[in-house]
Amino acid sequence: MKIVLPGGTGQVGTILDRALSAAGHEVVVLTRRPRRPQDVAWDGAALGPWAEAVDGADVVVNLAGRSVSCRYTPENLRAMMDSRVDSTRVVGEAIAAARRPPKVWLQMSTATVYAHRFDAANDEATGVIGGTEGGVPDYWAYSVEIAKNWERTQAEAPTPDTRKVALRAAMVMSPDRGGVFDVLLRLARLGLGGPVAGGGQYVSWIHDEDFVRAVEFLIAREDVAGAVNLAAPGPLPQREFMRVLRRTWGVPVGLPATRWMAEAGAFALRSDTELLLKSRRVVPGRLRDAGFAFAWPGWEGAAGDLVRRARAARAGSGRLRARVGGG
After folding, report:
1. Which residues pair with 113 in a beta bridge?
2. Cα distance from N-terminal residue to C-terminal residue, the chain
3. How confident is the model at residue 44, as a pLDDT?
4. Nearest 5°: phi and psi at 270?
5. Alpha-carbon distances of 40 from 13, 28, 29, 53, 266, rounded to whole Å
6. Which residues contact 101 (CB under 8 A, 6 or more apart)?
7. Burial code of 217-226, b = ≥16 C-beta within 10 A, e = fewer?
8. Are 6 and 14 in contact (CB under 8 A)?
9. Residues 130, 140 contacting (CB under 8 angstroms)
10. Which of 30, 84, 181, 198 is the most exposed place for a label (fewest CB within 10 A)?
11. Counting beta carbons within 10 angstroms of the beta carbon of residue 8, is it exposed (0 to 12), middle (13 to 18) or buried (19 or more)?
């Protein structure tokens, strides 16, 4: 298949590009900074010659959007909104204009669309959309609006010959440097991976292998359209999530952090506390109903695999540095 990945140079895009290319598919990445023969330049906001890559493609998986790993200033929040809505709009325009439109358009969304809650899990049928819950910072509602507008833009695109799926993805865990797992593992290794603000908030996640398999599953399942949660069936409280990660790496303790300590740490890391404090209790209702079988349904097994791969990558980097230094 020919698969086009707008915004495919980020963490998730790199995972998909690597896996789909290894599976023998022709992968074209739309990026602002093309570096490889399979990269095509685009600006994520206006139609251009890049649209030729969409015409005749089998699948489009749109991953474009400003990274959420930043301070949630008004300027950055607006950039997050605009980059997601504009890129989704223009992908829809390219599909609508194609002589041979793709069969399916998978559009990245986020599990953050659901409410901050502890009492019950959010699936697609009964989950509570966020934005009105009390006791949380006002700007958290803006993150929900970003997700809603993101999905609405795809849903309203006039692409009658293309099936559309919105991927409400939880945090994708992979050992790649700079990803969310890499950051969490670094905290655990430093002894800082304890409970944050009590640690009762739920962490929803998905192993990178299952993320790729779910994408392939949704491409093949012509009967599935609309919003689909991409999350492992075992979300768990942050304190337990980090306890498992520490134990897997071999770190005996993790210092706890209060809310204000989390705010100070997020400020130092140029990130935001919503990523640490919002309770994302999300489960994959539609994937399970459609018969998808997770290879890594539980965090303990997933963490073991990710830690093993992270250790192997570090060992390989160490050997490479030793050869370079000795040469």
Report:
1. none
2. 43
3. 95
4. 55, 40
5. 14, 7, 6, 8, 35
6. 54, 55, 95, 159, 161, 162
7. bbbebeebbe
8. no
9. yes
10. 198
11. buried
Burial class (CB in 10 A: 0-12, 13-18, 19+), 319: exposed
Structure tokens at 11: 């963490």
The upper half-sphere exposure of residue 116, i.e. CA atoms within 13 Å in the direction of its Cβ, equals 21
DSSP class of 196: B
In whole angstroms, what is the distance from residue 327 CA to residue 323 CA? Answer: 6
Mean pLDDT (the chain) is 91
User: Closest Cα partner for 68 from 144, 16, 133, 152?
Assistant: 144
Count the residues in the chain.
327
Residue carrying the six token digits 């309770």: 279
* Positive/negative CA dihedral, 296, 163, 102, 282: negative
pLDDT score of 71 more than 80: no
Using alpha carbons, list the distances in angstroms from residue 260 to 80, 164, 311.
Answer: 25, 41, 32
HSE value, Cβ hemisphere, 13 Å, CA-based, for 145: 11
